[in-house]
Amino acid sequence: MLIYVIMKEDMKGFKGLGEKNILQLIGESIKGSRIASNLTLIELADKSEISKTTLSRIENGKINTTILVLIRIFTALGREKEIQSLFPQPFESPILRSKQEKKTSGLPKRVRKTKKEKSDWFWGENNNE
After folding, report:
1. Contact 73, 30 (CB under 8 A)
2. Taking the CB of residue 29, how many other CB atoms lie within 10 A of it?
3. Residue 24's CATH number
4. Rounded CA gap, 68 and 54, in Å?
5. DSSP state at residue 39
6. Measured between alpha carbons, how far apart are the two ends of the chain, in Å?
7. In angstroms, rounded to a whole number, what is the distance separating the alpha carbons of residues 48 and 37?
8. Tens digit of each residue's pLDDT (9 = 90 or more) over 48-64
9. Number of domains in the chain
10. Whether the Cβ atoms of residue 55 and residue 41 lie closer than 8 Å to each other
């Protein structure tokens, strides 16, 4: 478990790390969790529904896998919350919220004034002919 905590601290800042190093950190984190959970490579691969070769390559940072495979692995390890934290709920747009509030407020929509009829007018003195 100590290995996992140390790796978790190391993963806080990916900025400045190369892709190879990031893949190695992810792989070490998965391997550390697997060992801490007393799972063999084959057992975790079966739970994750991937081949043991693929899992081994992920643990060793040799391949760049899809997010869907990582979700399966993290779910099998009981680490769903960490994956969920990667995808926070989107912020609501203030414009959309305002429109929604207007719809539910029951206030009448804006009513336009009717156009006034044009009147005849003249420059200068008024001619009443």
Report:
1. yes
2. 21
3. 1.10.260.40
4. 13
5. -
6. 103
7. 14
8. 999 999 999 999 999 99
9. 1
10. yes
